[in-house]
Design a protein that fits this description.
The structure is a homodimer. The first copy, chain A, is an alpha+beta fold and about 110 residues long. In chain A, about 45% of the residues lie in helices and about 10% in strands. Chain A has a single domain, classed as Winged helix-like DNA-binding domain superfamily/Winged helix DNA-binding domain (Arc Repressor Mutant, subunit A, Orthogonal Bundle). Chain A has a three-stranded antiparallel beta sheet with strand order 1-3-2. In chain A, a hairpin with a 2-residue loop joins strand 2 and strand 3. Chains A and B meet through helix 1, helix 2, strand 2, strand 3 and helix 4 of A and helix 1, helix 2, strand 2, strand 3 and helix 4 of B. Chain B binds a DNA duplex (30 and 30 nucleotides) through helix 3.
DNA sequence: TTAATTCATCGCAATATTACGATAAACCGG
DNA sequence: CCGGTTTATCGTAATATTGCGATGAATTAA
């Protein structure tokens, strides 16, 4: 088939998977790290930072925008990109909730 | 093309993307949550927990095993799955490092 | 040994992702 | 208005992912 059966899972699980998918490419990880390192938004040429064609980077930025982790505002002839603070924190909290489940559950449990 | 240009990125970025890719499907999120909820490993029938065919779940488990987040040991006629504690913590730390970068960098910076 | 159970793997079909050249759209300086 | 710069989108090709039926391998119970 090739189609994720999203209906079979909870909204929370689908949302978490969406965020993970946005992080599931080294170029997008690199873009996010670059945006985080900057003092404020990056206006223009993220292209120069990566060894990828302009069209490819634009596509990765689109993915990050669609999932809400990044916002872009037109600033004259350039476009300024920065992390979307609220969504960024929401995604962080969701991933934290997966890795640090509720109270006493940790992966150090005894195994077979 | 369709081939990730892993050579263009750092090992850290590629590794992070690998882990994110493993989480980038709701079925795998559900499997991990189920393994975390259990007292110890799950021996047999994770299949009953999800609305997916046995072959599909086996494939998702293979992905989780290949990336190291899950380990499986044969126990008689069944197979016991559990979270791989060290790798789980390593992945958690790597994702934390992305979301909470070094000292003063946070996404609350001023934007355009 | 035989039948049942459990899980992995193969093979296929459908869809998604990745990458990039080409091109379009929007803006600015002159 | 006219080039130059910057970014988005389109179209295409290559590859990856998802899902599942069918089949195989290993074990257990009888």
């Amino acid at each position: 088939m090739g189609l994720s059966k999203t209906a079979a899972f909870t909204a929370q699980q689908n949302q978490l998977a969406e965020w993970a998918k946005a992080l599931a490419h080294p170029a997008r990880v690199a873009i996010l790290q670059h945006l985080l390192q900057m003092e404020s938004c990056v206006c223009g040429s993220i292209v120069n930072e990566l060894d990828l064609a302009q069209a490819t980077i634009s596509q990765h930025l689109k993915v990050l925008k669609q999932v809400g982790l990044v916002q872009g505002t037109v600033e004259g002839s350039a476009v300024c990109y920065c992390i979307h603070p609220e969504n960024w924190n929401t995604a962080r909290d969701a991933l934290n909730a997966l890795f640090n489940p509720s109270p006493a559950q940790n992966p150090s449990k005894v195994c077979c």
